[in-house]
Write a structure and sequence with these properties.
Elements lengths: L6 H23 L6 H34 L3 H28 L6 H28 L3 H33 L5 H27 L3 H26 L8 H26 L1 H32 L6 E2 L2 E2 L4
Length: 314
Protein backbone atom coordinates (compact mmCIF):
# COMPACT_ATOMS: atom_id res chain seq x y z
CA UNK A 1 0.00 0.00 0.00
CA UNK A 2 1.40 3.40 -0.96
CA UNK A 3 1.32 6.40 1.28
CA UNK A 4 -0.53 9.42 -0.08
CA UNK A 5 1.54 12.58 0.17
CA UNK A 6 -1.03 15.17 1.18
CA UNK A 7 -1.34 18.87 0.55
CA UNK A 8 -0.41 19.55 4.18
CA UNK A 9 3.08 18.14 3.54
CA UNK A 10 3.69 20.55 0.70
CA UNK A 11 2.23 23.49 2.64
CA UNK A 12 4.55 22.59 5.53
CA UNK A 13 7.49 22.60 3.15
CA UNK A 14 6.49 25.99 1.76
CA UNK A 15 6.10 27.51 5.22
CA UNK A 16 9.38 26.01 6.34
CA UNK A 17 11.14 27.41 3.30
CA UNK A 18 9.83 30.91 4.05
CA UNK A 19 11.13 30.71 7.61
CA UNK A 20 14.42 29.32 6.41
CA UNK A 21 14.89 32.15 3.93
CA UNK A 22 14.27 34.67 6.69
CA UNK A 23 16.94 33.00 8.81
CA UNK A 24 19.37 32.95 5.91
CA UNK A 25 18.85 36.64 5.21
CA UNK A 26 19.47 37.35 8.87
CA UNK A 27 22.68 35.35 9.11
CA UNK A 28 23.97 36.69 5.80
CA UNK A 29 23.69 40.17 7.26
CA UNK A 30 26.19 39.16 9.95
CA UNK A 31 28.22 36.80 7.84
CA UNK A 32 31.14 39.12 7.25
CA UNK A 33 31.48 39.82 10.96
CA UNK A 34 32.53 36.20 11.54
CA UNK A 35 30.73 36.28 14.85
CA UNK A 36 30.65 32.69 16.20
CA UNK A 37 26.93 32.88 16.98
CA UNK A 38 26.14 34.21 13.52
CA UNK A 39 28.35 31.55 11.92
CA UNK A 40 26.63 28.85 13.94
CA UNK A 41 23.23 30.17 12.84
CA UNK A 42 24.45 30.25 9.24
CA UNK A 43 25.59 26.64 9.51
CA UNK A 44 22.24 25.62 11.02
CA UNK A 45 20.37 27.36 8.20
CA UNK A 46 22.30 25.48 5.54
CA UNK A 47 21.81 22.18 7.33
CA UNK A 48 18.09 22.92 7.54
CA UNK A 49 18.04 23.62 3.80
CA UNK A 50 19.79 20.32 3.03
CA UNK A 51 17.35 18.45 5.25
CA UNK A 52 14.41 20.02 3.44
CA UNK A 53 15.95 19.02 0.13
CA UNK A 54 16.25 15.44 1.40
CA UNK A 55 12.59 15.54 2.42
CA UNK A 56 11.57 16.91 -0.98
CA UNK A 57 13.49 14.13 -2.75
CA UNK A 58 11.67 11.57 -0.60
CA UNK A 59 8.29 13.21 -1.25
CA UNK A 60 8.96 13.32 -5.00
CA UNK A 61 9.84 9.64 -4.97
CA UNK A 62 6.80 8.70 -2.87
CA UNK A 63 4.43 10.69 -5.07
CA UNK A 64 5.94 9.08 -8.17
CA UNK A 65 5.31 5.60 -6.76
CA UNK A 66 1.73 6.58 -5.94
CA UNK A 67 1.29 7.78 -9.53
CA UNK A 68 2.55 4.41 -10.79
CA UNK A 69 0.28 2.43 -8.44
CA UNK A 70 -2.86 4.58 -8.83
CA UNK A 71 -5.77 2.82 -10.53
CA UNK A 72 -7.36 5.85 -12.22
CA UNK A 73 -5.99 8.40 -14.66
CA UNK A 74 -7.11 11.23 -12.38
CA UNK A 75 -5.26 9.89 -9.35
CA UNK A 76 -2.17 9.21 -11.44
CA UNK A 77 -2.16 12.80 -12.70
CA UNK A 78 -2.63 14.19 -9.18
CA UNK A 79 0.31 12.22 -7.83
CA UNK A 80 2.43 13.00 -10.88
CA UNK A 81 1.84 16.73 -10.30
CA UNK A 82 2.80 16.31 -6.64
CA UNK A 83 6.02 14.56 -7.70
CA UNK A 84 6.87 17.41 -10.07
CA UNK A 85 6.12 20.02 -7.38
CA UNK A 86 8.41 18.30 -4.88
CA UNK A 87 11.14 18.00 -7.52
CA UNK A 88 10.85 21.72 -8.26
CA UNK A 89 11.37 22.41 -4.55
CA UNK A 90 14.59 20.37 -4.69
CA UNK A 91 15.86 22.37 -7.67
CA UNK A 92 15.10 25.65 -5.89
CA UNK A 93 16.85 24.42 -2.76
CA UNK A 94 19.89 23.40 -4.80
CA UNK A 95 20.14 26.91 -6.29
CA UNK A 96 19.88 28.53 -2.88
CA UNK A 97 22.43 26.20 -1.33
CA UNK A 98 24.88 26.86 -4.15
CA UNK A 99 24.86 30.54 -3.18
CA UNK A 100 25.21 29.77 0.52
CA UNK A 101 28.26 27.52 0.48
CA UNK A 102 31.33 29.38 1.68
CA UNK A 103 33.32 30.75 -1.28
CA UNK A 104 36.48 29.68 0.50
CA UNK A 105 34.88 26.70 2.17
CA UNK A 106 35.79 23.06 1.92
CA UNK A 107 36.02 21.89 -1.66
CA UNK A 108 34.32 18.61 -0.82
CA UNK A 109 31.09 20.48 -0.02
CA UNK A 110 30.97 21.94 -3.50
CA UNK A 111 31.91 18.60 -5.00
CA UNK A 112 29.12 16.89 -3.07
CA UNK A 113 26.61 19.48 -4.24
CA UNK A 114 27.74 18.95 -7.84
CA UNK A 115 27.47 15.19 -7.32
CA UNK A 116 23.95 15.62 -6.02
CA UNK A 117 22.99 18.02 -8.80
CA UNK A 118 24.17 15.57 -11.46
CA UNK A 119 22.32 12.69 -9.82
CA UNK A 120 19.17 14.74 -9.45
CA UNK A 121 19.30 15.72 -13.11
CA UNK A 122 19.19 12.00 -13.89
CA UNK A 123 16.43 11.62 -11.27
CA UNK A 124 14.34 14.20 -13.15
CA UNK A 125 15.06 12.65 -16.55
CA UNK A 126 13.88 9.26 -15.32
CA UNK A 127 10.86 10.85 -13.65
CA UNK A 128 9.78 12.55 -16.85
CA UNK A 129 9.71 9.28 -18.78
CA UNK A 130 8.23 7.38 -15.85
CA UNK A 131 5.42 9.83 -15.05
CA UNK A 132 4.50 10.24 -18.71
CA UNK A 133 4.02 6.47 -18.81
CA UNK A 134 2.26 6.18 -15.44
CA UNK A 135 -0.59 8.57 -16.26
CA UNK A 136 -1.58 6.57 -19.38
CA UNK A 137 -2.50 3.40 -17.42
CA UNK A 138 -2.73 1.31 -20.59
CA UNK A 139 -2.32 -2.02 -18.81
CA UNK A 140 -5.09 -1.19 -16.35
CA UNK A 141 -7.37 -0.17 -19.22
CA UNK A 142 -6.52 -3.41 -21.03
CA UNK A 143 -7.37 -5.44 -17.92
CA UNK A 144 -10.65 -3.59 -17.60
CA UNK A 145 -11.60 -4.47 -21.17
CA UNK A 146 -10.38 -8.07 -20.90
CA UNK A 147 -12.24 -8.91 -17.69
CA UNK A 148 -15.26 -6.77 -18.60
CA UNK A 149 -16.75 -6.52 -22.10
CA UNK A 150 -14.35 -9.01 -23.75
CA UNK A 151 -15.15 -11.73 -21.21
CA UNK A 152 -18.85 -10.90 -21.52
CA UNK A 153 -18.72 -11.29 -25.30
CA UNK A 154 -17.09 -14.73 -25.03
CA UNK A 155 -19.58 -15.79 -22.37
CA UNK A 156 -22.46 -14.72 -24.61
CA UNK A 157 -20.98 -16.63 -27.55
CA UNK A 158 -20.44 -19.71 -25.39
CA UNK A 159 -24.02 -19.59 -24.08
CA UNK A 160 -25.44 -19.18 -27.59
CA UNK A 161 -23.46 -22.15 -28.92
CA UNK A 162 -24.52 -24.21 -25.90
CA UNK A 163 -28.14 -23.54 -26.91
CA UNK A 164 -27.34 -24.62 -30.46
CA UNK A 165 -25.99 -27.95 -29.14
CA UNK A 166 -28.89 -28.40 -26.73
CA UNK A 167 -31.37 -27.88 -29.57
CA UNK A 168 -29.93 -30.85 -31.43
CA UNK A 169 -30.76 -33.16 -28.52
CA UNK A 170 -34.45 -32.33 -28.87
CA UNK A 171 -34.39 -32.27 -32.65
CA UNK A 172 -31.90 -34.88 -33.94
CA UNK A 173 -30.57 -34.78 -37.50
CA UNK A 174 -27.76 -36.21 -39.64
CA UNK A 175 -25.68 -33.10 -38.92
CA UNK A 176 -25.73 -33.57 -35.15
CA UNK A 177 -22.19 -34.92 -34.80
CA UNK A 178 -20.72 -32.11 -36.91
CA UNK A 179 -22.72 -29.50 -35.01
CA UNK A 180 -21.51 -30.73 -31.62
CA UNK A 181 -17.89 -31.01 -32.75
CA UNK A 182 -17.79 -27.61 -34.43
CA UNK A 183 -19.70 -25.82 -31.70
CA UNK A 184 -17.47 -27.29 -29.00
CA UNK A 185 -14.39 -26.54 -31.09
CA UNK A 186 -15.42 -22.89 -31.36
CA UNK A 187 -16.23 -22.68 -27.65
CA UNK A 188 -12.93 -24.24 -26.52
CA UNK A 189 -10.81 -22.12 -28.88
CA UNK A 190 -12.61 -18.94 -27.75
CA UNK A 191 -12.01 -19.72 -24.08
CA UNK A 192 -8.34 -20.41 -24.77
CA UNK A 193 -8.15 -17.10 -26.58
CA UNK A 194 -9.71 -15.28 -23.62
CA UNK A 195 -7.31 -16.87 -21.11
CA UNK A 196 -4.30 -15.61 -23.12
CA UNK A 197 -5.23 -11.95 -22.70
CA UNK A 198 -4.26 -11.44 -19.01
CA UNK A 199 -0.77 -12.97 -19.42
CA UNK A 200 -0.24 -10.79 -22.47
CA UNK A 201 -1.21 -7.68 -20.49
CA UNK A 202 1.13 -8.62 -17.65
CA UNK A 203 4.06 -9.55 -19.90
CA UNK A 204 7.07 -7.24 -20.11
CA UNK A 205 8.90 -8.93 -23.01
CA UNK A 206 7.87 -7.90 -26.54
CA UNK A 207 9.07 -11.25 -27.87
CA UNK A 208 6.85 -13.21 -25.50
CA UNK A 209 3.90 -10.98 -26.32
CA UNK A 210 4.47 -11.68 -30.02
CA UNK A 211 4.50 -15.41 -29.29
CA UNK A 212 1.21 -15.14 -27.40
CA UNK A 213 -0.34 -13.15 -30.24
CA UNK A 214 0.64 -15.89 -32.70
CA UNK A 215 -1.23 -18.43 -30.55
CA UNK A 216 -4.20 -16.05 -30.31
CA UNK A 217 -4.29 -15.73 -34.08
CA UNK A 218 -4.39 -19.53 -34.40
CA UNK A 219 -7.20 -19.85 -31.84
CA UNK A 220 -9.13 -17.00 -33.43
CA UNK A 221 -8.93 -18.65 -36.83
CA UNK A 222 -10.23 -21.89 -35.27
CA UNK A 223 -13.25 -20.10 -33.79
CA UNK A 224 -13.98 -18.30 -37.06
CA UNK A 225 -13.70 -21.46 -39.16
CA UNK A 226 -15.99 -23.45 -36.86
CA UNK A 227 -18.61 -20.70 -36.98
CA UNK A 228 -18.38 -20.58 -40.77
CA UNK A 229 -18.75 -24.37 -40.98
CA UNK A 230 -21.78 -24.28 -38.69
CA UNK A 231 -23.38 -21.57 -40.80
CA UNK A 232 -22.96 -23.75 -43.89
CA UNK A 233 -25.07 -26.58 -42.42
CA UNK A 234 -28.61 -26.57 -43.81
CA UNK A 235 -30.13 -27.54 -40.46
CA UNK A 236 -28.74 -24.33 -38.89
CA UNK A 237 -29.75 -21.97 -41.67
CA UNK A 238 -31.16 -18.84 -40.04
CA UNK A 239 -30.56 -20.15 -36.52
CA UNK A 240 -30.78 -17.12 -34.17
CA UNK A 241 -28.42 -18.58 -31.58
CA UNK A 242 -25.73 -19.21 -34.17
CA UNK A 243 -26.20 -15.67 -35.47
CA UNK A 244 -25.90 -14.33 -31.91
CA UNK A 245 -22.71 -16.35 -31.35
CA UNK A 246 -21.22 -14.96 -34.56
CA UNK A 247 -22.06 -11.38 -33.58
CA UNK A 248 -20.65 -11.88 -30.07
CA UNK A 249 -17.36 -13.22 -31.41
CA UNK A 250 -17.06 -10.35 -33.89
CA UNK A 251 -17.51 -7.95 -30.96
CA UNK A 252 -14.84 -9.81 -28.99
CA UNK A 253 -12.44 -9.64 -31.97
CA UNK A 254 -12.75 -5.83 -32.05
CA UNK A 255 -12.21 -5.62 -28.30
CA UNK A 256 -9.18 -7.90 -28.58
CA UNK A 257 -7.56 -5.47 -31.02
CA UNK A 258 -8.01 -2.63 -28.52
CA UNK A 259 -6.71 -4.78 -25.67
CA UNK A 260 -3.59 -5.86 -27.54
CA UNK A 261 -2.83 -2.29 -28.58
CA UNK A 262 -3.11 -1.06 -24.99
CA UNK A 263 -1.19 -4.06 -23.68
CA UNK A 264 1.64 -3.52 -26.17
CA UNK A 265 2.12 0.05 -24.94
CA UNK A 266 2.71 -1.56 -21.54
CA UNK A 267 2.86 1.76 -19.69
CA UNK A 268 2.05 0.40 -16.22
CA UNK A 269 4.49 -2.49 -16.47
CA UNK A 270 7.24 -0.27 -17.89
CA UNK A 271 6.74 2.51 -15.34
CA UNK A 272 6.75 0.03 -12.45
CA UNK A 273 9.96 -1.57 -13.75
CA UNK A 274 11.63 1.83 -14.05
CA UNK A 275 10.43 2.83 -10.58
CA UNK A 276 11.77 -0.32 -8.92
CA UNK A 277 15.10 -0.27 -10.72
CA UNK A 278 16.59 2.88 -12.29
CA UNK A 279 14.57 5.32 -10.19
CA UNK A 280 15.29 3.60 -6.89
CA UNK A 281 19.03 3.52 -7.58
CA UNK A 282 19.34 7.19 -8.53
CA UNK A 283 17.17 8.23 -5.57
CA UNK A 284 19.59 6.48 -3.20
CA UNK A 285 22.53 8.26 -4.86
CA UNK A 286 20.76 11.60 -4.35
CA UNK A 287 20.03 10.90 -0.70
CA UNK A 288 23.58 9.69 -0.03
CA UNK A 289 25.08 12.81 -1.59
CA UNK A 290 22.83 15.08 0.49
CA UNK A 291 23.60 13.13 3.67
CA UNK A 292 27.32 13.49 3.00
CA UNK A 293 26.90 17.20 2.27
CA UNK A 294 24.96 17.73 5.49
CA UNK A 295 27.70 15.94 7.43
CA UNK A 296 30.38 18.07 5.77
CA UNK A 297 28.58 21.29 6.70
CA UNK A 298 28.04 20.00 10.22
CA UNK A 299 31.78 19.39 10.62
CA UNK A 300 32.83 22.88 9.53
CA UNK A 301 35.01 24.38 12.27
CA UNK A 302 33.95 27.64 13.89
CA UNK A 303 36.54 29.63 15.79
CA UNK A 304 35.75 29.78 19.50
CA UNK A 305 33.32 26.89 19.37
CA UNK A 306 33.78 23.19 19.91
CA UNK A 307 30.93 20.78 19.18
CA UNK A 308 28.61 23.79 18.94
CA UNK A 309 29.58 24.80 22.49
CA UNK A 310 31.57 28.06 22.95
CA UNK A 311 35.06 27.45 24.26
CA UNK A 312 35.47 29.39 27.52
CA UNK A 313 38.95 30.71 28.45
CA UNK A 314 40.48 29.27 31.64
Amino acid sequence: MTMKPGLSGFLWMAAGTAVLLAVILFVLHFREQRDPAAQLAFKAARIELVERMRLSVALASEAEKSAVMAITDQDSRIYADQARTAAAAVVQGCRELEQLLEPDGAKNEKDLLIQFSNAFTEFQRIDKDLLDLAVKNTNLKAYSLAFGPAAAAINEMDAALARVVALRASSPSADDLNIVQQADGARIAALRLLTLLPPHIAEESDQKMDEMEAVMTHEGQAVHQNLVDLSALPTLSGNPDLAAATVSFARFAELKKQILKLSSENTNVRSLTISLNQKRKVMLVCQDALAALEQAIQEEPIAGLSNRTPIRPR
